[in-house]
């Protein structure tokens, strides 16, 4: 059933109260009926209240509308009477006007004729006095008014030119204006003219029918002279700072150039001249474009020269403020110069300045690095053993890293967001930003590596501790510095080096640094090994081994070698910790391992005597005992790269010293006591070198080789009792 026809819906027009009540009594309980009654009563009261409110509100509106209508009715009555009065007065005015017009009709025609005659007489008077007036205006240098009066007279001459009485006046005026044209041409060609005066004179000459094409060429030529004078003047402003220099150029040169360009454009390009060829405007625009680019190129070349002279000496921020101001002015000129193409802009100068500043900072970094190295070297030479190598390394490392960070922060000024230019938007600028990373940072890190690697040459005569300091510094850069600096430059300059195929990766530089550190450390080992070798070689070569006395003590050189190795170990230990527990040994190993180098000689005393003392020298030389021993021994590489640990470094030095001692022994001939002295020295070294190394067997093997070579080179191969050797070594 439709809601509108529902007899049980109180809101419906077909609501039936009896049927609704009957249904309510039938379907609902007493409680529901009472609730329904309460709801109906409440809704009725609400509706009654709403209706009263509506009546009150509309009642006020009705009263207000009634008052308004009553007032309008009164106003219209007054207005109607006023309009009727006005109409009567207008009729009276019309009647009087018609009467006056009829009365003055004859006089009006006469007044018109007199007015025309008066106007003609004024024109004739103007023409008659024109030559004198033109001369007076020219003498007053009021050329614009003279040209304006002459052009005005031309219209009169065109109207009355056939009258003989006007020919003389016209000829006089033409002669005067021809002289004016000559004077204007001379003024136009003066070198001291400003752009404003050139424009004004050019406008006057055009009004006097000067040849347009000739005037256009002459205007550019004269403007070029004036602008060249300003370029020369700017070249002499060397005492001014960059900001003042650019402001002078903007206020003088660029403003004049803009005025010349806009005036030329308005006079020769924007206007059409009937007497010129059809392509005159196109040709004029082409000539103006060439002129504009030539002048801007001259000025920007001057600015670039000034920037190049200020880079590294002046304030970079002041320089960039000046270039930013210049960039804004040239952008404004581009907007003014419609249809013109300005080829060169300030971005090229700014990018070139960034490159030059990078080069200056690169040189500064290299000089600072050289000074730091000199300071380190001086500290090592002057302080000798009192200097702390860790402090030198820390100072050198921190000085380099902080200097590089400062340079990167300085160059960041080129990317400030408040500049009107954005060098990263240009391809050259993007390459420049990447160049800060590659040429400046990477280039300097490679310079560090190259310079430090040069100290590793045998001909460099570098102090040993300097090599150690530089090696450790390179290692610090490889482990921390390279990552810190490359991450910093990538973050500051928003460079995505990870996904770039052209940028140098961090691992490549780290590898170079580690290689340099390795070369320096190997050079340190070779140099210290050579120093030990020199002592051992001289001690062997300067002694008469055939006439030796029976050994009673260890030779002093062996004690000095052990002392020198102790000093080296102390220095190295301050920088490198041993990589294994053996590096911290405080006690010797067991005899079975510690005395391996005697295995061919004295595994037991009876065996030692039966093996060596029973042989004659010729038999010992042909013996296969030592050769078989070498055959089953591992080859010892002497000049191999060492590890970055205390034990490996000291072991490398010891190997070089013992190898030198071995070769020197092989070149000498020994008596019995000479052989026994070598035996005592070798045992002393074995007793003291164990604490410096992690692989004691290697030391024992080399000492075994030394004693074996001495036995082969001995004329009477009789070794000393081991107990006696022990006593001498412990006592000595």
UniProtKB/TrEMBL annotation:
InterPro entries: Cullin_repeat-like_dom_sf, Vps51
UniProt keyword annotations, A-Z: Coiled coil, Golgi apparatus, Lipid transport, Protein transport, Transport
Compartmental location: Golgi apparatus, trans-Golgi network
Superkingdom of the source species: Eukaryota
SUPFAM superfamilies: Cullin repeat-like
One Pfam family here: VPS51_Exo84_N
GO biological process terms on file: endocytic recycling; Golgi organization; Golgi vesicle transport; lipid transport; lysosomal transport; protein transport; retrograde transport, endosome to Golgi
Subunit details: Component of the Golgi-associated retrograde protein (GARP) complex.
Function: Acts as component of the GARP complex that is involved in retrograde transport from early and late endosomes to the trans-Golgi network (TGN).
Protein name: Vacuolar protein sorting-associated protein 51 homolog
Organism of this sequence: Drosophila busckii (Fruit fly)
């Amino acid at each position: 059933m439709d809601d509108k026809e529902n007899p049980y819906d109180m809101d419906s027009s077909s609501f039936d109260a009896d049927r609704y009540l009957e249904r309510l009594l039938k379907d609902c309980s007493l409680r529901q009926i009472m609730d329904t009654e309460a709801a109906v009563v409440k809704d009725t009261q609400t509706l009654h209240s709403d209706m009263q409110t509506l009546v009150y509100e509309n009642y006020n509106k009705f009263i207000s509308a009634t008052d308004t209508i009553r007032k309008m009715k009164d106003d219209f009555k007054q207005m109607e009477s006023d309009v009727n009065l006005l109409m009567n007065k207008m009729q009276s005015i019309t009647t009087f006007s018609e009467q006056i017009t009829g009365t003055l009709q004859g006089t009006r025609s006469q007044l018109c004729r007199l007015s025309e005659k008066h106007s003609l007489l004024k024109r004739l008077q103007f023409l008659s006095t024109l030559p004198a007036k033109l001369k007076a205006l020219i003498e007053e240098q009021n050329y614009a008014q003279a040209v304006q009066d002459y052009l005005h007279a031309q219209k009169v001459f065109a109207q009355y030119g056939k009258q003989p009485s006007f020919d003389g006046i016209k000829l006089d005026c033409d002669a005067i204006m021809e002289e004016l044209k000559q004077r204007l041409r001379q003024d136009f060609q003066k070198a001291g003219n400003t752009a404003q005066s050139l424009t004004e004179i050019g406008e006057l000459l055009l009004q006097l029918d000067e040849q347009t094409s000739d005037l256009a060429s002459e205007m550019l030529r004269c403007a070029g002279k004036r602008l060249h004078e300003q370029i020369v003047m700017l070249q002499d402003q060397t005492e001014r700072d960059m900001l003042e220099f650019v402001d002078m150029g903007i206020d003088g040169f660029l403003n004049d150039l803009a005025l010349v360009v806009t005036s030329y454009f308005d006079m020769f390009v924007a206007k059409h001249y009937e007497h010129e060829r059809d392509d005159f405007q196109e040709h004029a625009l082409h000539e103006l474009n060439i002129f504009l680019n030539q002048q801007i190129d001259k000025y920007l070349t001057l600015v670039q020269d000034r920037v190049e002279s200020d880079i590294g000496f002046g304030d970079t921020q002041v320089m960039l403020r000046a270039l930013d101001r210049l960039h804004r002015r040239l952008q404004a000129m581009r907007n003014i110069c419609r249809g013109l193409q300005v080829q060169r802009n300030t971005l090229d100068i700014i990018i070139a300045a960034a490159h030059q500043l990078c080069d200056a900072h690169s040189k500064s970094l290299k000089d600072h690095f050289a000074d730091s190295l000199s300071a380190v070297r001086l500290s090592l030479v002057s302080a000798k053993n009192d200097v702390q190598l860790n402090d030198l390394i820390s100072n050198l490392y921190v000085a380099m890293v902080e200097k590089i960070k400062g340079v990167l922060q300085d160059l960041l000024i080129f990317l400030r967001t408040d500049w009107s230019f954005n060098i990263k938007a240009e391809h050259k600028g993007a390459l420049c930003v990447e160049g800060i990373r590659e040429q400046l940072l990477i280039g300097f890190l490679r310079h560090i590596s190259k310079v430090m690697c040069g100290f590793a040459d045998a001909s460099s005569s570098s102090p040993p501790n300097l090599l150690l300091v530089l090696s450790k510094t390179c290692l610090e850069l490889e482990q921390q510095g390279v990552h810190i600096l490359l991450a910093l430059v990538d973050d500051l300059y928003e460079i995505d080096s990870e996904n770039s195929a052209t940028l140098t990766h961090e691992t490549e530089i780290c590898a170079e640094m580690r290689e340099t550190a390795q070369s320096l450390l190997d050079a340190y080992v070779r140099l210290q090994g050579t120093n030990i070798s020199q002592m051992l070689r001289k001690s062997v070569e300067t002694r008469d081994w055939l006439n030796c006395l029976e050994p009673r003590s260890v030779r002093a050189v062996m004690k000095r070698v052990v002392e020198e190795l102790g000093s080296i170990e102390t220095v190295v230990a301050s920088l490198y910790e041993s990589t294994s527990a053996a590096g911290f040994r405080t006690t010797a190993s067991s005899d079975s391992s510690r005395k391996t180098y005697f295995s061919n000689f004295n595994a037991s005393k009876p065996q030692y005597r039966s093996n060596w003392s029973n042989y004659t020298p010729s038999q010992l030389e042909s013996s296969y005992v030592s050769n078989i021993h070498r055959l089953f021994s591992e080859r010892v590489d002497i000049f191999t790269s060492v590890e970055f640990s205390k034990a490996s470094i000291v072991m490398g030095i010891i190997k070089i010293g013992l190898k030198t001692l071995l070769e020197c022994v092989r070149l000498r001939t020994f008596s019995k006591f000479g052989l026994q002295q070598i035996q005592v020295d070798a045992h002393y070294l074995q007793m003291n070198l164990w604490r410096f190394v992690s692989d004691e067997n290697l030391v024992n093997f080399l000492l075994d080789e030394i004693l074996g070579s001495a036995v082969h080179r001995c004329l009477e191969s009789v070794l000393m009792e081991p107990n006696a050797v022990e006593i001498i070594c412990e006592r000595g």
